[in-house]
Amino acid sequence: MKQRQGQKGFTLIELMIVVAVIGVLSAIAMPQYQKYVAKAEVASALATLTGIKTNVEAYSVENGAFPASGTESDLGVPASIPGGAIAFSASSSAGSGTITYTFASAGVSTLLTDKKFQLARTGGDGSWKCDAPAGTPVTDDLLPKHCK
């Protein structure tokens, strides 16, 4: 009597199951990864704005007013920032204004293309807060927790 040899290799159905499982996992993982990358880009932009905030405070103390649009280079803001642009906007009340970060239309996560967020300063007490500007703001789920 001949002994039956063991199975060598995988059957077609086993391979199809493995491919299906990998497909489902990647369908879940890719959007989460893209969201993670977008959150990291927002955190990087916020860190840039926080550094500029110190220069704005010094300017406000010296001049008694929030810096106007066009004074960015005077305050140490680089002429070009990879992935976005920074702009100042003074408001009508003394010492109040915003620093707005606008993400570029290319070279950033597709979730952030042409989106904006800003830090707003109130003149009375000099406090800062994250704010959603008019137009196309960054969605709340991509902002750091302390900005919501």
In short:
The protein is α+β, with helices and mostly antiparallel strands. Helices cover 35% and strands 16% of the residues. The model has no long low-confidence stretch (mean pLDDT 86).
Question: Which keywords apply here?
Answer:
148 residues, Glycoprotein, Type 4 Pilin, 35% helix, 16% strand
Structure description:
The protein is an alpha+beta fold and 148 residues long. Helices cover 35% and strands 16% of the residues. It contains one helix and four strands, in the order H-E-E-E-E. It has a four-stranded antiparallel sheet, covered by helices on one side. The chain is rod-shaped. The model has no long low-confidence stretch (mean pLDDT 86).
Distance between the termini: 76 Å
- Lateral arrangement of strands in the main beta sheet: 1-2-3-4
Q: Give a short account of the largest sheet.
A: 4 strands, antiparallel
Structural class: alpha+beta
Please write out the topology.
Layout: H1 12-63, E1 84-90, E2 97-103, E3 116-121, E4 128-131
Antiparallel strand pairs: 1-2, 2-3, 3-4
